[in-house]
Fold these 2 entries.
Entry 1:
Amino acid sequence: MSYTDYIFEGYHARVAELQKSDNPFATGIAWTGGDYVPLHQATVPLLDNGFLKSDLSYDVPAVWDGRFFRLEDHLDRFETGMSKLKLTSPISREELRSRLVEMVAMSGIRDAYVMMICTRGLRYLRAYAPEECQNLMYLMVMPYLWVSGEETQKTGASIAIVRDTVRVPTGSIDPTVKNLQWGDFTRGILEARERGAQYPVLTDGNGLLTEGSGFNIVLIKDGKLVSPKRGVLEGVTRKSVMVAAEKLGLDWEICDVPVSAAYEADEVMMVTTAGGVMPVTVLDGKPIGDGQVGPLSKAIWKEYWDAHYDPAVTIPINYR
Amino acid sequence: MSYTDYIFEGYHARVAELQKSDNPFATGIAWTGGDYVPLHQATVPLLDNGFLKSDLSYDVPAVWDGRFFRLEDHLDRFETGMSKLKLTSPISREELRSRLVEMVAMSGIRDAYVMMICTRGLRYLRAYAPEECQNLMYLMVMPYLWVSGEETQKTGASIAIVRDTVRVPTGSIDPTVKNLQWGDFTRGILEARERGAQYPVLTDGNGLLTEGSGFNIVLIKDGKLVSPKRGVLEGVTRKSVMVAAEKLGLDWEICDVPVSAAYEADEVMMVTTAGGVMPVTVLDGKPIGDGQVGPLSKAIWKEYWDAHYDPAVTIPINYR
């Protein structure tokens, strides 16, 4: 028995059903402007500046047990990101929402990782003004991805606070605009692997924590949750965690968090759409607290997954 | 009459010939692991981590008047870059060289921009060790690209030293590993456009110049050339410029260059494969010196293009 059974038992049953499916989209479906195609057949033109300059923004909502979770939060953030990069979606928000819902329904996938990417397109930005570039949209739905999977969540993940790489600063690339320029994260991932940790967390090179490779970091100390404010993506999962904290009557703050705070925390969580709220029990090779998943992490975790059934923040999918 | 006629007259004649060609590869040819395809038909899998994480390195040599220029320098740098990212080319250096030469020959393109990209491939790095990832190679040959074209070279380009964006620091992403994570350059390009300049040059946020969007910057003061040492790509064109300087008996140094040095320079050049040695005559809206292309820039420029016929550093292509 593990606290994680609460969601994983149902998840396993749905995955088993999905694996029996002969639906050609059961392993993923994509849209790249024309027809829907099986994900593994989808392609991007070699000349797309989303590839040749990583000139794009993206977002990732998830579907859990047949319900889109906080899709509007992701669409809001995606619109803001595109706007900051002077990208214009080739499709309206209504069409985007309805295609995503349609793709999930067609795939039959009940627990899905959903990606939307808007690229600059085939014209190179310097040669053309933003408004002269026909931006392109790529959409993907695939079976749910776990940054930290069931087994790791039971006992907690291990992270390393990275030494040789600092988070790209906000003066270079805006981390609130979700992007795929993962150079610092890639270096962090390689360092974590060398140091025997599963995930990296990066600092800002100026005494503060920022985030990990595709996840926000949340620390709990004396019953209060804190998470770094600057130099990070404004995570939807992080927002959900603070909503859960509020509900549980816990104090919380998004603020500057010194690196040392990670080493003094009672509990630590990695939070991201791909996996949710994932407890961390080892930091730089040493146990956090007693090395067990903490009680507040478990309480937040349960609130987080309960919210995936809250009609106020979910859209149920009408599977065919 | 312009100093630029020296190369552009021949170039125009060759472009006119190319435009008459009915060769399906005359507008570009690509290799993505299988058959050669016309460039505009070439695609990358949507799931390639070269797209989904910009996890890749690349390099760009050029062909001029039917000769590959400094190809070995580019292959050396590309190998070093792949090694630093723990990427392993799926093809040997010999095969890479011979495919590039073959592709140029097949295309009939006499003046070409050639790109080689090695991506992480379909496996995500955190889930798999580098050695477990089958890395992929993409090759492209297309008609020569000009960061600064003939007309601009005649009178010199205009640059802006960017204010709101700093170059991604070396502690985040290694600029000596040629990469497509252009977030800072993209911001710089947008700022330059807003300020009425053609190109951005970025600082390191710590009082020193770095480079521009895909080009190194070279300043000439009192007959000496300087170019920033840290936080930049170790440009092959920059190397060619220093070789040319040496030949002309000019002093040169790759070193820390304060931002103010740009405003005190006698002459300024942007240097990159896509266009070569390109004089700059306007900085932040004001003329540099007398606002004319300077004599040392012209001398370096001529040496640079003469070197494109030097058998020591070129490989002539055997067009069919």
Entry 2:
Amino acid sequence: MQLTKDQIASANGNLNDHEADFNYLANKLSRSGTDVESLVKSLADFQVAVPSWALGAGGTRFGRFSFHGEPGNLEQKMDDVGILHALTQTAGAVSLHIPWDTPQDYAAVKQIANRNGIVFDAINSNTFQDQPGSKYSYKHGSLANTDEAIRAQAVQHNQEVVRIGEKLGSKSLTIWLADGTSFPGQRSFQKALAQTEKSCQEIYTALPEDWSLLIEYKPYEPNFYSTVIMDWGTSFMLANACGDRAYTLVDLGHHLPNTNIEQIVATLMAKGKLGGFHFNDSKYGDDDLTVGSIKPYALFLIFNELVYGMRHNPENPNLAWMIDASHNIKDPLEDLIQSLEAIQEAYAKALLIDQIALSEAQLNHDVVKCQEILQEAYRTDVRPLLQRARLSRGGALSPLAAYRSLKVRENLIRERGMHTVATGL
Amino acid sequence: MQLTKDQIASANGNLNDHEADFNYLANKLSRSGTDVESLVKSLADFQVAVPSWALGAGGTRFGRFSFHGEPGNLEQKMDDVGILHALTQTAGAVSLHIPWDTPQDYAAVKQIANRNGIVFDAINSNTFQDQPGSKYSYKHGSLANTDEAIRAQAVQHNQEVVRIGEKLGSKSLTIWLADGTSFPGQRSFQKALAQTEKSCQEIYTALPEDWSLLIEYKPYEPNFYSTVIMDWGTSFMLANACGDRAYTLVDLGHHLPNTNIEQIVATLMAKGKLGGFHFNDSKYGDDDLTVGSIKPYALFLIFNELVYGMRHNPENPNLAWMIDASHNIKDPLEDLIQSLEAIQEAYAKALLIDQIALSEAQLNHDVVKCQEILQEAYRTDVRPLLQRARLSRGGALSPLAAYRSLKVRENLIRERGMHTVATGL
Amino acid sequence: MQLTKDQIASANGNLNDHEADFNYLANKLSRSGTDVESLVKSLADFQVAVPSWALGAGGTRFGRFSFHGEPGNLEQKMDDVGILHALTQTAGAVSLHIPWDTPQDYAAVKQIANRNGIVFDAINSNTFQDQPGSKYSYKHGSLANTDEAIRAQAVQHNQEVVRIGEKLGSKSLTIWLADGTSFPGQRSFQKALAQTEKSCQEIYTALPEDWSLLIEYKPYEPNFYSTVIMDWGTSFMLANACGDRAYTLVDLGHHLPNTNIEQIVATLMAKGKLGGFHFNDSKYGDDDLTVGSIKPYALFLIFNELVYGMRHNPENPNLAWMIDASHNIKDPLEDLIQSLEAIQEAYAKALLIDQIALSEAQLNHDVVKCQEILQEAYRTDVRPLLQRARLSRGGALSPLAAYRSLKVRENLIRERGMHTVATGL
Amino acid sequence: MQLTKDQIASANGNLNDHEADFNYLANKLSRSGTDVESLVKSLADFQVAVPSWALGAGGTRFGRFSFHGEPGNLEQKMDDVGILHALTQTAGAVSLHIPWDTPQDYAAVKQIANRNGIVFDAINSNTFQDQPGSKYSYKHGSLANTDEAIRAQAVQHNQEVVRIGEKLGSKSLTIWLADGTSFPGQRSFQKALAQTEKSCQEIYTALPEDWSLLIEYKPYEPNFYSTVIMDWGTSFMLANACGDRAYTLVDLGHHLPNTNIEQIVATLMAKGKLGGFHFNDSKYGDDDLTVGSIKPYALFLIFNELVYGMRHNPENPNLAWMIDASHNIKDPLEDLIQSLEAIQEAYAKALLIDQIALSEAQLNHDVVKCQEILQEAYRTDVRPLLQRARLSRGGALSPLAAYRSLKVRENLIRERGMHTVATGL
């Protein structure tokens, strides 16, 4: 299934209200010095990757409630991303996960991507589950395993993933390790760290010259006493040990309670080592909820640092942006639409911050004013700007409303049936 | 020092921009069915108490940096609240703390209150510090002390506080206990609970018939292993053991990491036992930061429950609303202005929620829609509504801007000097 | 497979070292006033239930690594508990989970239980997963569902579980609800609570007269914004709304970070409302790790309260003790042996506390002494007491060593094969 | 006041019971291959510094309850450490804090130190409070201040502290910064980090050649939104930016909830960057409770890493060990005695771990065995070893009992009076 520009335009209907809203806001912002046109362009240019595993219903260890019309193969997943991108105009990339999404027919997959205006962003390996036919099990670890043969198998899998990515046009490999322990004493921390460093270096060395390595961190789960790459400091250390094209990847849900994530973002950008970003939201742990559904102000503060860094720290690569959420009780596509909207909203508000006034207030230690400046931007209703950016590219005025009025899910069920199951968690 | 309506009007200046903003928003909201006039009236009616100890600079255990022009006595504190109320029109009450604010001249204090349109809300006792001249120390507890004489002294102090409150027109007593332990084994949990229950009952029994008892809870600090009234469940149990006019008081900062506070609010309202509310914000513990400065969306969700409860649970009393924040690095009055604005903003957005559509979406298990409805309200820029509510009562268009343009702090310093110190923490 | 007393005795070998250790310790403890014989008897009498689902390898949402020789049906599960009990003499009960363990042949199951000296403790229902053939899905809740028909199905399932339990000799039903929300606004907190209360009352009313209802609480997972029964206060309120034979059940892993669990235990016992206890350990969330593997001192402090309550609060029922741990990377039976040992150790140490001296030190506010008294008990190496208790009932000197030397797992694999999979999570 | 060897010996009384206990344990340990003599020697050699500010009663922001007989000047503080060391034989160092402890008479202070066998460990600067007579305030930061003059004042203060330390024989400077923010937007994270790095480098460059710089980290308090040096990763990065003799200092209380501290210790040791260690215990935040009073098993696991690192990572310096606890409700000296005992206990148990068997079990992925090995050591009652180590140096069999029987506090009160107040927090 594919949505045409005409379908979307017809779903948009009359744009008069939008025009009025946009003009009101644009006038207001212009009066206080904002270059609205350039802001809308920044929004329109901003693209986020959709991970292939987010298109089916996720689950918890207590069970999984499936969703109807899930994509049953990679081609259908690509179609789903195409639908998202047609509506939102901000989902212009996909992030594959191997072996869940190993292409059977590269040409066909690339053709669907092209047709939908989608590129292949960072590609993900998987050494946290055993694959049928694998010689060794990752039960006791992969890149950090005490057993050299198992480490070698895991390194080799990563290299294979890179070869797949090369054929599709990816330029970076994301490594997330479940390696760790659930009980004190189970491993030597020092040895596990040394082995992880060595394995990462092996993967890094074999990378194509124009590729980057993105190293993700996480404090716990699925291991519940320790994780080898537990925090940004460890990832940063490993990236430094690999080389210039190795970077840290931040996933918003991978932090201990109360962590100041925006400060981590700022630190990594200051050091030229922020390589990728996984969006989601959470209240307790790695809850993988819809972006912006729990702590939208924190997201805005993080975007403030990202915007600052993108302007002032050119030594960082183009960030690999991705949504990493999971949806047990929402239609996966609707959930992604809400996430994409929340990301754009936070970005728009961060762009509205009066950075010159803020710097000045900071120098004057005018703490009250600093807060006012941030809240001035945050309290602004930026939805007309998001609409304008989408419309400028042929997207939907309201992607969710269009998705429903165009009966996308109903059509997908008709095409695919009720009981398809997407690969993934 | 006192601000006149004229001063404020002149600080407001030209209201054309406000008119345009308000009309734009009111039209938009009216089209989607909101009764804007009634909403503005609700905002204008909403009043929050300012605690007398929030008018000087707070501190941490590591030190205190004083602020200039702090109020040196109760009369000056009342003046400060008067200034706040004149500007914001939402600070129409004060909450005193005994013995920090024991009036010397009741008539004078009441006169200042009247002149400023301020009433006396819940009054607070203090059994967490020793007072000069006290016979017994609270080092090892007050209402929960193992020593009967010390418990009696603490009960008596509370009764005295009530007598002071009666003379001022207060109608409720707030008890916050520091009682607890810093080391395992230090106390018997069961005995401490039983003694606390008995002491609370003694205080309750002696209350005037039209008074309420508000029982605050807190998980830790200043004790670091256990606190006698550790959570809402314990407070609720104690309130039930006292009687109908005993209620739980929720302070936003008094929860363990990741607590769902809005659910606690809903539960207490459902049971008719929510009696008071202390506003502040925090990232780590009882940080006592400006309301809305860290988690404004959580504040909105809490207000959603409060609004629901105020409509559907008439068995709850009129809530004793209070700000309980502390300000080491901001001008205390500016900080309170920011807090009051954030409270009004959250209240306004909660009032905007389309409750009928929400109920329907909940019944349909349309989780995506439920989120959309909340976010529709939250994303709206409600500042013109707040301005209109303030203007309708003679307040400032922008209280902070007026405070600065009228040079309030400079005047206070001139009147009071640089080095006054307010009583409090 | 069944272990005979002879096999165990032969695995125990020479007991001289044990005799020497026990005598040394018994003499030492007797000198300071401990009645060692009675203490050993208390330990020998203490029995903990093993949940039927703990006998296979658990998993996380990221995958599951199976273990060889897992029990393939209920009879084999009962055999496993029999092995555990023969070795440890403290696993004299089993806790079934319906529908995972619905008996096919009641007589056969009871016969295995009798043969192994095992009774049937609290029985567990499951309304957090959909069962094949069920009319309605629990995707959007069970006892708290907005839909009356779904609530009725869930109530009925619980009643059916009771009928199964009756045939086996159980006397209590444990309810754990996954009901809750993952997104703000998804449900009305007040309505969900009211519906849960009503459903619990329906189940309670239909209980046999000699049965108890145990209501479990949990702050989050598998729902990540709110859980209907989120904390002890909510469970306590629901138990009170049901009646005298409804109690709260505490699972050690179901708390927010830093919760003082021992205080909750003390509170519930003081009010006669502690009905059951699930043991496990955790560092981050509901990690379900081996008991005592992370925070053994906290476990000791909890046992201190349990011992106190069992002595002073006869209004509480005989507690339903159970282990609720999960084991991805350990042999499940070895893991349970370690958990049982840790429970017995904490119990023994709690029994060693000099309660008279402790009360006195508490009255004297001698905080240093209070700590010394607890630590004196905790620092004692009580393993000879545990050995003596086991030996007195024909158990193993060292259950783990015996398990390995008797090659239990190897035998189970021979009997059952490599690739059996136990029902459960 | 000073305790003589004779006084202590007489307080020790008859040692027969100790002999019996020690022999029983030593025999048992020797049989399983432990070199008991060498272990006792390691314990006897292990020395911990007492911070000068721990000798008076601490406080919280809610108040302070003073203790009688507090040391009124530096000489009296040195006497207190002397008493501690005489009793425990493990407090052979003191850590001064400037300006709280600036010596008036260096010769006198050194003489007291010599007489008591005490050396001067790391010296601490203070830029988190304003000092009388200082030109600039640290209200808005010190080493990270936006204002160059204030940064310079703070750097200069640190250099002065070094000069004081040089005269006393210290060889390292500990920097703890309160610098940070309480509100989003208050500072630029990137600039604050850059300025901190620059200031640290200036201090480092001016250090004497045989001195080390120890950089402490802390996530929050007294700032409640962000702290400049928020975690080990930031401290590690700063230490690397300074040079070879700059290290990270770990304070046990300075971590977010659920942090795996032992893994941080292992990581820093693996990289040769662990320079100092502050002991305390906590349940919620930086609670500064007696060492080992809340999580003794975690302390043991940390010591396991420290022991491993001291053996395998010679590139780390001799660690600056210090207690950093505070005592509102205990006699400060008794509290320190309990802390010292808990440290020695954890160290002794860590030394008992069978490292060879552990390595082997780790290689075999025998997770159950790994846990058994750790617990075997932890469950051992090592108190006779601690007694033997103390006795071997002329210390007390039981320092706390001796302290009380020798009526030390009563004597101090007689000497110093009831109402002295020690400098410090």
